[in-house]
Write a structure and sequence with these properties.
The protein is α/β, with parallel strands linked by helices.
Length: about 850
C-alpha cells in the first residue's frame, strides 16, 4: 500500500442518521481511497455511529483506516485524538454530516502531489451549502469570492488579507508543521471557531502565508433542516458569547502579537469576519441574541472591547469581506474602540427643496452643539438624537437636525467648528480604485486593459445586447419606447400633471388608500386623484363600478402617470407597489406611507427613503422619532394623522341597530393553526344566543377547515368583505392581526389576542400595544372572550384608558389630517417657521 498522502480525521458524535451519506460519498470518490487514510473518532456517541463506521471499514479491506473510541470530550478533543493517530503528509477534518462531491478527493490529491503545492501552507476547498430541506446546492457562502477564478489559485495572505479561511473541515494542513508548531484544537473554544483559532496560529508562523484555493474541489456543507448543528444552534448558549471571544478571538490576537510583534491584517480580518456575524445577527427580527440574559451580553461587549485594542482602526474602516453598515462601523470605532469620533465633522445629506430645509448629522455630544444660519444661532426646525444600540447598550449617539437651507449653515460643537461634507456620513478611505480616480478627476471611465481597445461599462454591455436581439424588436422594448414617447405628449401632461397616485398594492385594495381616495374625490375636487391597481385584481370590477379613476398597474397609462405625478400615497412602503423598476419618477415627486399600524413592526430602515410616514397613533410616531430611537426619522418625516379607514369604521357604526352578542374571529398569521382549530371547535362558541363570525383569508379558512367547521359559524373572506361593517357589529374581536387590533379598539370594542407560541417567533408582541389581554391557547382565549361578553363588550378599565392614551380623541377627520399632511410636504415654510432663534 502506498504512503499516505492525506489523512481524513472524522469526529463523530450522534451522527448515525447522517453518516451513511458521508460514507457513500467516500465510496463514490473518483480515483478511490488507496493513498488516503480515514480515521473515525467516536467521541462517546450514544448511537450507532461507531459501529456504522467500523462496519464500513470492515467491508473495505483496501481502505486504510480505523475507528478510535474515547469518552465524550467535545469536537476539539476528538479532532486532536485523530490528529495524534494520523500518518498522512497532509490532514483534513471533514464533518460526518457533510458530503464530499465525487471529484473532491481526486482534485485535492492531484494538487497535493503537484509542484505548485511545494510552497503552500494551507489548502482550502470550495465550501458550498447543501440545503437539507430541499436537497438543493446553495453557493452563497460569504467567502465564495475566493473561488471566483476557475481551477486552482495560490494567494499570499500578506498581500491578499481578505482571503481568510476558517473551516478545518474544508481545509488541508501539513501534519508535520502542525506537530512542529505544537498546535492542537483548543477545547475551551466552543461551540465554533476552534478551526479558525488553530488555522490563524498555524499561518501566523509564516511571514507570507500562502493559501491554495481549489475551486473544483466542492465540499457540501449540510444546512440541517432542524438547525441542530453546532453552527446553527450555538446562538443560544453562553460559550458562544463568552468563551469564543475570550479563548478564541482574544487568545489568537494576543498570541500572534507576542509571536510577531504585530497582528497582520489578515489575522484581524479573520477575527472580524467571525465577530461581526454577532452584530448582524442582533439586528434580525426574532434573533436568539435578543433572548439571551443581559449578563451574557455585558460580558460579550466587555471582551470585544479588549479584542478591538488589538485591531487597527484602518482594518475596521477597510473591512469588506462581508457587508457592514456604516452604523456598525461607527459603533465599533466610536462606541467600543474609542470614546467618540476624533474630529468634529458634520454631514449635509438630504435636502427638502419644497420646505427649504437641509438635514445635518454629526456624532459629537449634542449638549455642546450650536447651529448657525447666516451667522446667527438658530434652533433646528426638526431634530432628534439617534442612539445606535447593540446587545442592550447604546454605543453611538448621532445628532440629526433639519436646518434652514437659505443661507450659510455652520455647526459648532464644544466651541469648535465642525468640518462640513456633502453626502452621507463616511469613514476614512486609504485607497482609491481606478474607477473613482478617473470618474472623479476626468469625468470618464478608466482606460481598459483590453489591448484591442474594446469598450467597457454599461453602454458597451447594452450595445452588445442590442446586437444579439432578434428581429422583430421585442414587444417589451417596443412598449417601453412607446410609453416614453406617450409620456412626453401634451395629452399625458394635461391628464396626469401633479397627479396624486394612491394604491394599496397591485394585487388588492380595501386598505387605507382606498378610503382616502373616496375622501379626496368627494371633498378635495381640485386634487388630480387616481387609483393604481392590477387589472387582474378581484377588486378591479368593484372599484370600476363605483366610478374610481383606475390605472392598471404596468400599463402605458401607468408609465405616463408616473412621469408627471406629484404624490405617491400608499399603504405599503415598497416603491415597487407604485413604480416598475424601469420608470424614473419626477425629481419633485413625493412618497407618503399610510402606516396601517403598528408602524414599529415595519423595519425603520425601510421607511427612511420615504418623504412622509403617517401613523395611526402617537405611540407609533414616538417609537420612530423620539430621542434614543435608532432610525434616521424625525418629526420632519413622521406625523400622526390617524388612519383613513378609521373614518369608515365610525361611519359603519353609526345608526347600527342593536343585535345579540357577536364574536368576530380573525386569524390572519401563519402560526398557531392548531390553537385556532381547537378554539373554533369549542361548544361554548356555538350556543344559540351567540353569533360567531369567522373573517379570514381563503387559504387560512381552508387550513382551518381540514375538518368541517362547526355548524353556525359564518365565514367571510377577508379580501372581499366589508371588514368595517363586521367590526361595527362585533361585541368582542378575537384576532392575531395588528391593524385589526387598532380598528377594534378605535371603535371601543373589547379585543382579545390569541398569540400561540413564543413572542419572539412573531417578532412583535401584542402586549406591547396594550389594548387587550394576550392569550396563548384556546382555553385562555375563550375565558377572556366570556369575560368580555359578561361586560357587554366593554373593554376593561385598564385597556380603555390605554386606548385613550393611544388614540386621544376618537372621531372622524383622519382623511382630512392625511390630506393636510401630504399638502404640507410641498408647502414653503415661513420665515418664522424656518428661523427658530435660540
Amino acid at each position: 500500500m502506498p504512503d499516505v498522502l492525506l489523512s481524513l480525521v472524522v469526529p463523530m458524535y450522534g451522527v448515525a442518521g447522517y453518516l451513511p451519506d458521508f460514507l457513500a460519498s467516500l465510496d463514490a470518490a473518483d480515483g478511490g481511497l488507496g493513498d488516503l487514510e480515514v480515521l473515525f473518532v467516536d467521541d462517546g456517541s450514544t448511537d450507532a455511529s461507531g459501529q456504522i463506521a467500523a462496519d464500513w471499514l470492515a467491508a473495505r479491506p483496501g481502505v486504510r483506516g480505523q475507528v478510535l473510541t474515547k469518552e465524550n470530550g467535545g469536537l476539539a478533543s476528538a479532532r486532536n485524538a485523530g490528529l495524534a493517530a494520523a500518518s498522512g503528509a497532509w490532514v483534513t477534518f471533514p464533518d460526518p454530516d457533510d458530503i464530499l462531491t465525487p471529484s473532491y478527493l481526486q482534485v485535492v490529491r492531484e494538487f497535493l502531489a503537484s509542484p505548485q503545492c511545494d510552497d503552500v501552507h494551507l489548502v482550502a476547498t470550495n465550501l458550498v451549502f447543501l440545503q437539507e430541506a430541499t436537497g438543493e446546492r446553495d453557493d452563497s457562502h460569504p467567502l465564495r469570492f475566493k473561488f471566483a477564478e476557475a481551477h486552482h489559485r495560490v494567494v499570499d495572505l500578506a498581500t491578499h488579507p481578505k482571503f481568510v479561511h476558517l473551516s478545518a473541515a474544508s481545509g488541508c494542513y501539513r501534519r508535520a508543521e502542525l506537530l512542529a508548531q505544537g498546535l492542537s484544537f483548543d477545547g475551551r473554544i466552543r461551540p465554533t471557531f476552534e478551526d479558525a483559532h488553530l488555522t490563524g496560529l498555524h499561518l501566523a508562523a509564516y511571514e507570507h502565508p500562502r493559501l491554495a484555493l481549489l475551486e473544483d474541489a466542492v465540499y457540501l456543507y449540510r444546512k440541517r433542516a432542524d438547525e441542530s448543528s453546532a453552527v446553527q444552534s450555538g446562538w443560544s448558549v453562553r460559550p458562544k458569547y463568552c468563551d469564543i471571544p475570550r479563548y478564541g478571538w482574544l487568545d489568537l490576537l494576543r498570541r500572534v502579537a507576542e509571536q510577531r510583534g504585530t497582528v497582520p491584517t489578515w489575522t484581524q480580518n479573520l477575527v472580524l469576519y467571525d465577530a461581526l456575524r454577532y452584530f448582524r445577527r442582533e439586528r434580525r427580527r426574532g434573533s436568539p441574541t435578543s433572548q439571551i440574559p443581559q449578563e451574557w451580553k455585558d460580558e460579550f461587549l466587555a471582551l470585544f472591547r479588549e479584542v478591538l485594542t488589538l485591531i487597527d482602526v484602518r482594518s475596521i474602516e477597510e473591512y469588506k469581506i462581508t457587508p457592514v453598515s456604516a452604523d456598525l462601523r461607527r459603533a465599533l470605532l466610536y462606541g467600543l474602540k474609542s470614546p467618540g469620533p476624533p474630529v468634529a465633522q458634520c454631514w449635509f445629506d438630504r435636502l427638502d427643496t419644497d420646505r427649504r430645509l437641509v438635514r445635518v448629522r454629526h456624532f459629537r455630544d449634542a449638549k455642546g452643539e450650536e447651529f448657525r444660519v447666516r451667522g446667527k444661532a438658530v434652533q433646528p426646525v426638526y431634530g432628534k438624537v439617534r442612539e445606535l444600540s447593540w446587545f442592550g447598550h447604546p454605543l453611538v449617539s448621532e445628532r440629526i437636525a433639519w436646518l434652514p437651507a437659505v443661507g450659510t449653515v455652520a455647526v459648532w460643537v464644544d466651541g469648535e467648528p465642525c468640518r462640513t461634507q456633502i453626502g452621507a456620513p463616511a469613514l476614512g478611505r486609504y485607497a482609491l480604485g481606478a474607477g473613482a480616480i478617473w470618474r472623479g478627476l476626468a469625468e470618464r471611465e478608466p482606460p481598459t486593459d483590453d489591448p484591442t481597445g474594446g469598450e467597457t461599462g454599461t453602454f458597451a454591455v447594452l450595445r452588445e445586447a442590442v446586437g444579439q436581439w432578434d428581429r422583430p424588436v421585442p414587444r417589451e422594448l417596443m412598449d417601453n419606447a412607446l410609453g416614453r414617447v406617450a409620456s412626453r405628449s401634451g395629452w399625458s401632461r394635461r391628464r396626469y400633471t401633479d397627479a396624486w397616485l394612491l394604491t394599496d398594492g397591485a394585487a388588492a385594495a380595501r386598505g387605507d388608500a382606498e378610503h382616502l381616495y373616496r375622501y379626496l374625490r368627494a371633498q378635495q375636487t381640485g386634487v388630480n386623484t387616481w387609483f393604481l391597481l392590477g387589472r387582474e385584481s378581484a377588486d378591479w370590477e368593484r372599484l370600476s363600478a363605483e366610478g374610481f379613476r383606475l390605472i392598471a398597474y404596468g400599463s402605458r397609462d401607468h408609465q405616463m402617470a408616473l412621469s408627471h405625478c406629484r404624490h405617491l400615497i400608499g399603504s405599503t412602503p415598497d416603491l415597487r407597489a407604485f413604480c416598475p423598476e424601469q420608470v424614473e419618477l419626477p425629481a419633485d415627486a413625493r412618497r407618503t406611507y399610510l402606516a396601517p399600524g403598528p408602524a414599529t413592526a415595519e423595519p425603520a430602515r425601510a421607511l427612511e427613503s420615504l418623504d412622509l410616514v403617517l401613523t395611526p397613533t402617537v405611540a407609533e410616531q414616538q417609537a420612530l422619532v423620539s430621542d434614543g430611537s435608532s432610525s434616521l426619522l424625525t418629526d420632519h418625516d413622521v406625523q400622526v394623522a390617524g388612519a383613513p379607514r378609521f373614518d369608515r369604521l365610525l361611519e359603519a357604526g353609526r345608526g347600527l341597530a342593536p343585535s345579540g352578542p357577536t364574536v368576530l374571529v380573525v386569524p390572519v398569521g401563519e402560526t398557531g393553526l392548531d390553537e385556532w382549530r381547537a378554539l373554533l371547535a369549542r361548544e361554548d362558541l356555538h350556543t344559540t344566543d351567540l353569533r360567531t363570525v369567522l373573517l379570514t383569508t381563503v387559504e387560512r379558512a381552508a387550513a382551518l377547515s381540514a375538518e368541517v367547521l362547526p355548524r353556525g359559524v359564518e365565514v367571510y373572506d377577508l379580501h372581499r368583505s366589508d371588514t368595517a361593517a363586521l367590526l361595527a357589529e362585533a361585541t368582542v374581536v378575537l384576532t392575531d392581526e395588528a391593524a385589526l387590533t387598532l380598528d377594534a379598539a378605535w371603535l371601543g370594542r373589547a379585543v382579545v389576542h390569541l398569540q400561540p407560541g413564543e413572542v419572539s417567533a412573531a417578532g412583535w408582541a401584542y402586549r406591547d400595544l396594550g389594548l387587550g389581554p394576550v392569550t396563548t391557547d384556546a382555553d385562555g382565549a375563550m375565558a377572556a372572550v366570556h369575560a368580555a361578553l359578561d361586560r357587554g363588550g366593554v373593554p376593561e378599565t385598564t385597556y380603555a384608558q390605554r386606548a385613550v392614551e393611544v388614540f386621544g380623541e376618537r372621531g372622524t377627520g383622519c382623511c382630512e389630517r392625511v390630506y393636510l399632511a401630504v399638502r404640507g410636504l410641498t408647502r414653503q415654510l415661513s420665515r418664522k417657521e424656518l428661523f427658530r432663534r435660540v
